[in-house]
Amino acid sequence: MAFSFALMYDQFLFLHTADLPMLPRLRPILFLFLCPTVFAHDFWLEQEGGDTWIVQQGHRYSTHGGAETVPYDPAKLGTAWCAGEAGRWKPLDIARTQPARLTGTCLALSVSHASGYWTKTPWGTHNEPKTGVSGVLKSWYSEESVKRLVRWHPALATPFGKGLELVPTVNPLTLKAGDKLVVQVLEEGKPVAGVPVAYGEDTRGASGDDGRIGIRLRHGGMQLIVASRETPLNDGKADVSIRTATLQFEIAP
Q1: Burial status of residue 142 (CB atoms within 10 A of its CB: 0-12, 13-18, 19 or more)
Q2: Which residues contact residue 253 at a Cβ distance below 8 angstroms, ignoring those fewer than 6 apart?
Q3: According to DSSP H, which parts of the chain are helical?
Q4: Which residues sit opposite 144 in a β-bridge?
Q5: Which pLDDT score is estimated for 63?
Q6: Can you list the alpha helix ranges (DSSP code H) found in 94-227?
Q7: CA distance 99 to 76
Q8: Residue 69's pLDDT band (cuts 50, 70, 90)
Q9: Whose CA is closest to 36, among 212, 207, 201, 148?
Q10: What is the CA radius of gyration of the chain?
Q11: In degrees rounded to 5, what are phi and psi of residue 91?
Q12: Helix axis angle, 2-16 relative to 23-34, nearest 10°?
C-alpha cells in the first residue's frame, strides 16, 4: 500500500509540478502527509540490563501493525556514540550481533544505520543504485539515526554536531503527557528550516527558520520524535538522499 501510494505521489509531482519554485520545500511535507507509512520501521535503543543497550528495528511503538522487531544488517550500522557524565560525546564499540548491542555508562547514546541505495521501478523497489536499471521512477539513498536520552545534563540541549539530529531545548525526562516539548532540527550543528517532524506516526509540522518546532506529548512512557530531510544527490546512483533522525526518551506512564 505504501509503495503504490508513493508511486502515485511521485508520478503526479513529476508530471504536474516540476516547474513550481516552492516544490523543493513542499515536497517532503507533501510526501509525509500523502504516505503516512514513510516511517514504517522505527529504530530505537532498548536497555537489556545495566549498561547494555540493544539496537532494535520494528513496530513495537507503531499503531499500524507489523512484527514487533524485524532483522537488519548490523554491518550497516555507523559509529555509535556515548555522552559521558559531563555530556561530552565519545565513540562507543558496537557488538555487531543480530540485533547489535552497545555497552557503556552513558547519559545518552546515538547510532546510525545506512540501508543504502534504493530504486523504485514499475516492477518493485530494490535495495540497489539506479545505475543500469531500466524504468526507474525514483531512487534514493537512505540513512537513519537514533539518539536515546537516559539521564539529563544541560549539555544535551546543545547540538552533537554529527549529521541530522533533533535536540530538546529543555529536559524532556521531567515532562508528562499533555506537556509541549520544543525540539530543534540541526544538520552538522546548524539549524535547518522546513524539515518535517513526526510524532506518533503523524506529521506535526515542519521546523521553523530557527530549526524549532513544538511537539505536544500525547501519552506517557516511551517517546519517539522523528525528523526526515530529503536533499538532491548528484552521484549518479540516486536522485535524493533521505535521512531520518529519531529522538528517543521515556517519561512517566
Answers
A1: middle
A2: 220, 221
A3: 2-16, 23-34
A4: 113, 244
A5: 65
A6: none
A7: 12
A8: confident
A9: 201
A10: 18
A11: -65, 150
A12: 150
E strand residue ranges, 96-211: 101-103, 108-121, 124-126, 138-149, 164-168, 180-187, 190-191, 196-199, 202-206
CB 211 within 8 A of CB 184: yes
Q: For residues 74 and 166, what is the distance between their CA atoms, to the nearest angstrom? A: 23
Q: Is the pLDDT of residue 181 over 80?
A: yes
C-alpha cell at 32: 509525509
Among the listed residues 13, 63, 12, 4, the one whose alpha carbon sits nearest the alpha carbon of residue 35: 4
CB 138 within 8 A of CB 118: no
pTM for this prediction: 0.83
C-alpha dist (Å) from residue 252 to 142, 170, 183, 218: 33, 16, 19, 12
Minimal CA–CA distance to 210: which of 191, 226, 229, 195? 191
Owner of C-alpha cell 535521512:
243
For residue 161, the SS3 value is: coil
Distance from the Cα of residue 140 to its chain's centroid: 15
Q: Across residues 216-232, what is the average pLDDT? A: 96
Q: How many Å apart are CA 118 and CA 130, to the nearest integer?
A: 7
pLDDT in tens, 37-55: 344 578 899 999 899 999 9
- Residue pair 70/41 in contact by the 8 Å Cβ criterion: yes
Give, in order, the Cα–Cα distances in Å from 174 to each of 2, 3, 46, 83, 183: 36, 39, 20, 19, 15
Lowest mean pLDDT among 7-21, 86-100, 133-147, 191-205: 7-21
Report the SS3 class of residue 52: strand
Q: Are strands 240-251 and 202-206 parallel, antiparallel or unpaired?
A: unpaired
Provide the 8-state DSSP code for 97.
Answer: S
